[in-house]
Design a protein that fits this description.
The protein is α/β, with parallel strands linked by helices. It folds into two domains: about 5-175, Glucose-6-phosphate isomerase like protein, domain 1 (Rossmann fold, 3-Layer(aba) Sandwich); about 200-315, CBS-domain. Helices cover about 45% and strands about 15% of the residues. It is built from 15 helices and twelve strands. Helix 2 (about 30-40) packs across helix 7 and helix 3 (about 50-65) runs parallel beside helix 7 (about 155-175).
């Protein structure tokens, strides 16, 4: 039998995949009740756990917070030395322990019981102290750890992490948490940039290259050169965008008479456009292949601005 790293790695992933499938089938009424209770709470979700469960709990709290459910992680040890004061009677405690008997959790669990704080347990042991103290117990399936010694939390911690994601996404859907809400909580970095509106990053007049449909290519070349976007938009008498001339159009129509040709003859009709209220993410999807610029127009197809691929590069989106 091959005991090399590749078959071992694949076996670990296979075991954890089976565990996740078992977890999926195990979800039932208690999961529904937990989602509803968290949704209705006027306080926050206090996530706690020790060891690997604690690391998973930290991630779960972070995911909750970033998807519209106020949450933070409290370390059981710190809770015993003053951090219990961070928990109010309006909060909900989400306690993670594979065995359900983690002694470091005892102070925070009995604090919850003494003050009537709602407790949701995540554990593999239905008959455990944690389950018995909990108002709702989310029991993860009893599956062997991927560790060959059956000791290191692997399969169990993967199931806890997935269950936390399931709770967070279910709550997100229940609260109708939108992309706009997500943007408000992620103003910086890559995610924040992708969730900006096109109107926030587009170039506006007098920098937008535009020309009348009555102009000749000689004038169009001057506008393209002066504005430096490698394109020019063609507008009709009603100031509606009817076409675009790009560097590619120039190459395709190169001839001795090019400068005397009408812009309407050279332009590409029905160019790709985008609305100012669209997300930068949508603009990114539209800029495929040879498309390096998008004219931003209103409902009447009047040009309001221009978004260039270099703008996305500066935002580190490509």
């Amino acid at each position: 039998m091959d005991h090399g790293p590749l078959p071992i790695g694949r076996d670990v992933i296979e075991q954890e995949t089976l565990a996740l499938k078992a977890l999926k089938e195990s979800l039932g009424d208690s999961f529904i009740q937990a989602v509803q209770k968290i949704k209705e709470t006027k306080g926050r979700v206090i996530v706690t756990g020790m060891g690997k469960s604690g690391h998973i709990g930290t991630k779960i709290a972070s995911t909750f917070s970033s998807t519209g459910t106020s949450a933070f992680f409290v370390h059981p040890g710190e809770a015993s030395h003053g951090d219990l004061g961070m928990i109010s009677t309006q909060d909900i405690i989400l306690a993670l322990s594979n065995s359900g008997e983690t002694k470091e959790l005892s102070d925070i669990l009995f604090f919850a019981k003494r003050h009537g704080i709602f407790l949701i347990a995540v554990t593999q042991k239905k008959e455990s102290t944690l389950s018995e103290l909990a108002n709702i117990a989310l029991i993860i399936p009893s599956m062997p750890e991927a560790c060959p010694n059956g000791l290191a939390p692997t399969t169990s911690s993967t199931m806890m992490l997935a269950l936390g994601d399931a709770l967070a996404v279910a709550l997100l859907k229940q609260k109708a948490f939108s992309k706009e809400d997500f943007k408000a909580l992620h103003p910086g970095g890559h995610l924040g940039a992708r969730l900006k509106r096109v109107s926030e990053v587009m170039h506006t007049a007098p920098h937008v290259p535009l020309i009348s449909d009555e102009a000749l290519m000689e004038e169009a070349l001057l506008v393209m050169t002066n504005k430096s976007f490698g394109c020019v938009g063609v507008v009709d008498k009603a100031n509606r965008l009817i076409g675009v001339i790009t560097d590619g159009d120039l190459r395709r129509h190169m001839s001795p008479t090019l400068l005397r040709d009408s812009v309407v003859k050279i332009m590409t009709r029905n160019p790709k456009i985008i609305a100012p209220t669209s997300l930068v993410e949508e603009a990114l999807h539209k800029m495929t292949g040879t498309i390096t610029s998008l004219f931003v127009v209103n409902d009447q197809k009047e040009p309001l601005g221009l978004l260039h691929i270099h703008d996305l590069l500066r935002m580190d989106l490509l």
